[in-house]
Amino acid sequence: MKTSLVTGGCGFIGSHIVDKLIKLGHHVTVVDDLSAPENETFYYNDKANYFIKNIAEDDAVGDLFQNIDYVFHLAARSRIQPTIGSPNECFKVNTVGTQRVLEWSRINGVKKLVYSGTSSLYGKQNTIPFAPNMPANCLNPYSMSKWMGEQICKLYYQLYGFSSIVLRYFNVYGPREPLKGEYAPVIGLFKRQYASKKPFTIVGDGSQRRDFTYISDVVEANICAINSHEVSHGIYNVGTGVNYSMNELAEMIGDKGYEIKNIPPRPAEVKETLADITDTKRDLSWEPKRKLERMIKCY
Q1: How many beta carbons lie within 10 A of that of residue 44, not counting itself?
Q2: Residue % of the chain over a pLDDT of 90
Q3: Burial tier of 296 (Cβ tally within 10 Å: 0-12, 13-18, 19+)
Q4: How many CA atoms lie within 13 A of 297 on its CB side?
Q5: Across 150-212, where does the E strand assignment appear?
Q6: Chain centroid to CA 203
């Protein structure tokens, strides 16, 4: 039986990966400190083993990496705006925590680690579509800390030969997405506002565009990453190659003419994201299967 460990496995993306691994017959260990402020609910699978621990502080976490084949590293401070006002915890968890996870994986002979990265590191200087070989242009502590985590993955491959795949996610949505607070991902936020008959809060004029990726496509990308035996290390975009404006998104979720409240633009946010997934298709044999127009009303 294959064995996998998932950090941050009680959250949105992590819990879906846990469920998929269980279905594939893996023995799954989950490490999560249940501290993510954006989560109102944490998710569990009865067939997985759970440990409530902090990867950045608890040395005993290292013992859980014994006899593990694959590590899926998702534990992070994962909202952009809150990290601007509170960067310390962000760097501690996202950067130092990642190094600790890599070291535990290396010394215990883990076959491969899949690192959940972010498309936010492309910033404002890169042209659309974003490709993995473009330079990072980090605009906030979140994207910088996640980029530093990528660099540690690269270092561990170059120095120790430890295998890792970095997946840069583009605006993941779907069941279990965070709904809490004003900085919740936009689809979840709009759905919450629509359900409570409140106006959609749209930042700026709503012309900014995002590439939205359905959760099951993201899960499949993680599975493809561990099955890509010819790829020892690499950085790959996980998106759709299609983007939508906030105004278009509002029209998909609400009735035509649904009330909108425009709020001031936020610092450190880009105007447009769009993924170039050429390398992902070629190297990982992955491509997105779900379209936003159909999936947005399916949950």
Answers
A1: 13
A2: 87
A3: buried
A4: 9
A5: 164-169, 172-173, 200-203, 209-210
A6: 22
Q: Which residues contact 231 (CB under 8 A, 6 or more apart)?
A: 165, 225, 283, 284
pLDDT (0 to 100) of residue 148 = 98
Question: Catalytic pick from 142, 169, 214, 244?
Answer: 142
Sole residue written with tokens 């990528």: 150
Is the pLDDT score of 74 beyond 70?
yes
- Counted residue by residue, the chain has a size of 299
Average pLDDT over residues 227-249: 97
Q: What confidence score (pLDDT) does residue 178 get?
A: 86
Active-site residue flag, 115: no
Tokens of 162: 């430890």
Euclidean distance between CA atoms 118 and 54, whole angstroms? 21
List the single range of 27-31, 88-92, 176-180, 219-223 with lowest mean pLDDT: 176-180
Closest listed residue to residue 206, CA positions, set 249, 269, 176, 239: 249
The Cα-based distances of 178 to 36, 115, 139, 192 in angstroms read: 10, 20, 23, 10
Secondary structure E strands in 32-111: 49-51, 70-73
Burial state string for 56-89 with b = 16 or more CB within 10 A and e = fewer than 16: beeeebbebbeebbbbbbbbbbbbbebbbeebee
The β-bridge partners of 260 are 200
Position 183 scores a pLDDT of: 62
pLDDT given for residue 234 in this prediction: 98
**What does the pLDDT look like over 154-171, one tens digit per residue?**
999 999 999 999 999 999
